[in-house]
């Protein structure tokens, strides 16, 4: 039994039953699959602006939005100088992607300068029974090098004294609800997610509304020492749980009957560099929900509380099971 005192003074007791950890071989296999998916193939040879990719082996009926973000960033990186790193990514999810079909990413260099670059990246897939293509994602990237100047950041709200490795694995929260959960959450993930409070996948009866949530995350295996790859994996992870904050404001679970959401757009501001195979704290909140839409925002911190990134996402929500919505669905069914 593990008890932890949060910054707000609340005492939390974690589930005593802990499933066995994944083997190192299985962990590396899952991470390697995501990395292999991110590494797109050039369709035009050296210097080309079109890239092809596949979908991860995750058991989803659509292409995961975080994968689209990561692949779009990888495509942009192939078209910019090596000293340029992403500073901001803004993406619109146009349609849900088909995981059975390959993806094509086309880079449009709006500006490629010595100190900075602005790119537009479009992800497309072939249409059913047609020679045409449909747009899945439109993203804009700002890239450049660091400069000397002002330097400050706001530390995380929570106490950073919690050891995330001692928190229960996500599987220990969910193991008693497997009959309600889709295959997505029952199989291994590339990222190890650790929650200090009950996650919103299946909330206990009588759970109180929460203004946000905190979780720690890291990859299940060591990632190659390629800074740009770590940026892409951070984009991938930023979309795993962000819309949870909207549901938590109303003490709603994703699986308490008919709840569904789709991501409309997603933005990431990259403040400082981090390794995704270090523990990162992800603080998430929802400032507003209205008209069937919900806004979620997040701050990502690296070791020692260093501010790594700010994330925002707008989603469209349904709580009655109606699903005729645009956008790329988040992994909830």
UniProtKB/TrEMBL annotation:
Domain Acyl-CoA thioesterase 2 C-terminal as annotated: residue spans: 210-316
Keyword Hydrolase: yes
Source organism superkingdom: Bacteria
Pfam (any one): Acyl_CoA_thio
UniProt keyword Hydrolase present: yes
Protein family per UniProt: Belongs to the C/M/P thioester hydrolase family.
The protein's name in its UniProt record: Acyl-CoA thioesterase II
């Amino acid at each position: 039994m593990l008890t932890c005192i949060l910054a707000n003074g609340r005492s939390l007791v974690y589930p005593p039953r802990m499933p066995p950890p994944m083997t190192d071989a299985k962990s590396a296999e899952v991470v390697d699959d995501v990395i292999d998916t991110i590494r797109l193939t050039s369709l035009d040879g050296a210097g080309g602006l079109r890239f092809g990719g596949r979908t991860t082996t995750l058991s989803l009926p659509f292409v995961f939005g975080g994968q689209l973000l990561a692949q779009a960033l990888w495509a942009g990186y192939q078209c910019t100088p090596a000293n340029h790193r992403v500073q901001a990514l803004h993406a619109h999810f146009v349609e849900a992607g088909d995981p059975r079909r390959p993806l094509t990413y086309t880079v449009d260099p709006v500006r490629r300068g010595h100190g900075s670059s602005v790119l537009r990246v479009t992800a497309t897939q072939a249409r059913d029974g047609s020679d045409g293509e449909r747009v899945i994602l439109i993203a804009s990237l700002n890239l450049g090098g660091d400069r000397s100047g002002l330097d400050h950041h706001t530390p995380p709200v929570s106490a950073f004294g919690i050891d995330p490795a001692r928190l229960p694995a996500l599987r220990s929260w969910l193991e008693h609800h497997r009959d309600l959960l889709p295959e997505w959450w029952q199989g291994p993930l590339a990222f190890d997610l650790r929650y200090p409070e009950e996650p919103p996948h299946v909330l206990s009866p009588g759970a109180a509304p929460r203004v946000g949530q905190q979780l720690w995350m890291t990859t299940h295996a060591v990632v190659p020492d390629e800074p740009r790859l770590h940026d892409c994996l951070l984009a991938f992870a930023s979309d795993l749980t962000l819309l949870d904050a909207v549901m938590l404001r109303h003490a709603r679970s994703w699986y308490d009957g008919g709840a569904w959401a789709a991501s409309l757009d997603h933005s990431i501001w990259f403040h400082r560099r981090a390794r995704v195979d270090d523990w990162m704290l992800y603080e998430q909140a929802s400032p507003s929900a209205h008209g069937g839409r919900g806004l979620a925002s997040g701050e990502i911190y690296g070791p020692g509380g260093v501010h790594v990134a700010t994330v925002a996402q707008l989603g469209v929500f349904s709580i009655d099971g109606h699903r005729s919505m645009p956008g790329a669905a988040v992994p909830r069914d």
